[in-house]
Structures are given as C-alpha cells and as structure tokens.
Design goal:
mainly beta, 4-stranded antiparallel beta sheet, 51% strand, globular
C-alpha cells in the first residue's frame, strides 16, 4: 500500500498501490472494514482522494489524472 485517504464522512477509506490498483473499503455497523470496490489502472498511482461530496475518486499518475464516478450505495 502506498497511500490512503478517508471519505469526508469517515465511512470509507481509499487505499492505493504502485501496481495501479485503488481499493475502497467501507465500515460496517460492527466496526469492521469490508472491501467495496476496486479501481484498476495500467500505470502506478501517485495519489488518490475522494471528492468532497463522496461521489468521485480522483487518481493521479505521473502524466495524467482520472476522475472515476462511484456507483456505490452509501
């Protein structure tokens, strides 16, 4: 894991790896964390964060940025 970022409401955490994957884990009612989504890219991710409204994830690379719309239910 190379970086992590929490959603504004603290219910989700976004982790990134140098292999080009970003994973979103959500907190369950019992306090455990469960994988909710995986975003895969071909290039290593330099950084990633949630948008302030929690509807998007922004991933950046050495030469470009990708904005992904989340289709998860909150």
């Amino acid at each position: 894991m190379s970086q992590n970022s929490f959603s504004a409401d603290g219910r989700y955490v976004l982790t990134t790896c140098k292999d080009g994957t970003a994973k979103i884990h959500g907190m369950e009612l019992d306090g455990s964390w469960v994988e909710k989504a995986i975003i895969c890219h071909d290039d290593p991710i330099v950084s990633a964060t949630f948008s302030t409204n929690g509807l998007y994830v922004v991933t950046s690379f050495s030469k470009h940025v990708i904005v992904s719309k989340l289709l998860m239910h909150h």
